[in-house]
Amino acid sequence: MNQPHPVQEQVGSPLESRYRRLLWAYPGDYQAERGDEIVGTYLDTVEPGRRWPSPHDAVDLLGAGLRERLRGYGALGLVAALPLAATAALNTLVAVAAFFLLQVEVEDPRFARLDSVGPFQTLGVVIWLGWLVVGLTAAVLPGAWARSVAAGAVLLTVAVPPVAALTGQPGPPLFVLIPAVALGLATLALPSHPGWVARSLPPLTAGCVTAASVALNAAESGGGMFTSYGSTPELLAMAGGLMFALVLFVGLGRALRADDAGLWAALLLATPAGLFGANQLSQGLWGGPTLAAFAVTTGSILLVGAALLTVVLAGRATRHRTVRRSAFDSTCPTCGHRPEVAAEA
Fold first, then answer.
1. Can you tell me whether residue 120 is helix, strand or coil?
2. Which residue windows are transmembrane per the record (predicted)?
3. What is the pTM of this model?
């Protein structure tokens, strides 16, 4: 007696409907044309008895849907920009982590008027150690391992404030944590097969910041300039600006070779760079470092960043549709046929 095909067994099942829900990531016309084929392919690969798509399948489907939408907008450069933005974000976090560990966390808590957390000023020490581990993993075990460890570091960064509130222990201020979370989310797109330059950057960055911190402490006979998080807002704003400037510089250089991925990366990192300066900006705009002023400033930066990305995507989509329409409407002066290749451009 013939056994039913695995796909036939899953037709109409909860698993099939859950795979179909993931198709929302694709454009509507693509779903109608290829949806059955896509779902059938995934159902053909799952083991019997599974009721939910695996995390790998879900990420794969959502990522493919995003790429297809961006293809329709003429913005595939944004997909290519994600690994570049992730690499820049990770190295910025590694630099910030090394700095805060050596310049703030190991300083006498009395400078910050805080109760100590062991030999450290705050629970932030676990965050910065976590991001240094991510940097080491990206150098030694890039790809899926690095992305998994980065996801854990993001969760750790988010978890520290409520843990600090519940335990009564001090934690880093929000003007430090919010940009760290924003950059951490960007690191989830770390490349699967980075070159030796990208792999060597995190340990090199950590080493350079460590050397600079040691030299600064020696010059000040034990330190004194950066004794708490409250003494670092200006430096954070400079770090965000430097990160954005470097990525923009790389993007302009790649643009000269008809590669817009670097410019897309700069656009993606504009919001985290702005968040690094949110504390300074709120003081300049509202005259004081109040929580309300910081919240309004942070929200404004997020809205402006999202609006800027939306406007650029809309402009690229409009231009792409215009080019496609022109290609469809044009005819060959010799044979009178429309060029089929241009239609896929």
1. strand
2. 75-102, 122-141, 148-168, 174-192, 235-254, 261-279, 291-315
3. 0.81
